[in-house]
Structures are given as C-alpha cells and as structure tokens.
Amino acid sequence: PYTDLLLHDMGTGLASPTGSPMAREWRTPPLWGVGLARAVRRNAGFLHDGRARTVEEAILWHGGEAEGSRQRFVELPAADRAELMAFVRSL
C-alpha cells in the first residue's frame, strides 16, 4: 500500500488546531490510487485535510519527522524529481 501505517510527528505546519499534544501526529495513508485522485474527484486535495493542491505541494508541507525527507526531495535534481512524481502518479 506504500505506507508504514505508523503515526508520525508532522510538525507545527500540519498540526490540527485542536490544541491536543497529539495534534501534530498523523498516520501515513496508503498511496495506492493517489494517481487517480483527480480522475475520481476533479478538485481532490492531498494531505490529511486536503489543503495541498498537488502531491508535490503535500511533500513540501511536511515537517517534524519528515523534514529530512522533504529536504532530500527539494534537493533532488529536476529529472529525478520528475521521475519520482511520475512513479507516485502511477500508483
């Protein structure tokens, strides 16, 4: 399913406004079908609350535990990033 099904601290940028200490923790959803999201629903959003307009934007919203992964994505050469996004859209 392309997920680890674990809870991760995603940082303050993705925190829920509940004020709960757990508000920064989100379970990684399965990525199967993410490439069909727009075919199913034209205005599909990404992340737990749909605030990201694209998969790339969703990656860039990540912080907390995912900050290192986000940074590695940003530092990828453009061709590698395009290949990664093509793969994700194929799921």
What brief labels describe this structure?
about 90 residues; about 35% helix; two-stranded antiparallel sheet; about 5% strand; mainly alpha; 2 strands; single chain
SSE order, as H and E?
EEHHHH
Described by strand count, sense and barrel closure, the largest sheet is: 2 strands, antiparallel
**What percentage of the residues does DSSP assign to strands (E)?**
5-15%
C-alpha geometry: globular
The mean pLDDT is 86
Q: End-to-end span in angstroms?
A: 9 Å
Query: Regions with pLDDT < 50 over 5+ consecutive residues?
Result: none
User: How many E strands?
Assistant: 2
Could you give the order of strands across the largest sheet?
1-2
Structural class: mainly alpha
Helix share of residues? 25-40%
* Count of helix runs: 4
User: How large, in whole angstroms, is the Cα Rg?
Assistant: 13 Å
Oligomerization category of the chains in this entry? single chain
Notes on the structure:
The protein has 91 residues and is mainly alpha-helical. Helices cover 36% and strands 7% of the residues. The chain contains 4 helices and 2 strands; from the N terminus they run ββαααα. The chain has a two-stranded antiparallel sheet.
Structure at a glance:
It is built from four helices and two strands; from the N terminus they run E-E-H-H-H-H. It has 91 residues and is mainly alpha-helical.
Describe the secondary-structure layout.
Layout: E1 7-9, E2 25-27, H1 37-40, H2 55-61, H3 67-75, H4 78-90
Antiparallel strand pairs: 1-2
